[in-house]
Amino acid sequence: VQLVESGGGLVQPGGSLRLSCAASGFTFSSYTVSWYRQPPGKEREVVVTILSADGSKNSADAVKGRFTISRDNAKNTVSIKMNSLKPEDTAVYYCSVRVWGREYWGQGPQVTVSS
Fold this sequence. Notes:
The chain has 115 residues and is mainly β.
């Protein structure tokens, strides 16, 4: 199982960013995928999740209405579009999937929201 993320970087408050995660090594369409983040000095927290069965999505209250997760099962990719970014969204972001009872993580691109 491999998860390779792209995107991230520095953005001003109110700006937008897209992160993508390319998956391989398992039947991507059969698994729920989540994005987590870890702000500086804080614990990792789940941000958004997209289910495998029907594509239903769940979002943490802190990002509702601003972050959107989507998946392309034909390309084995999952993306998160982040709008109206705030300084408190600054964190390392990880895509994650649980396969065969084990949690796998991407490398974690940094997102920094600052003027």
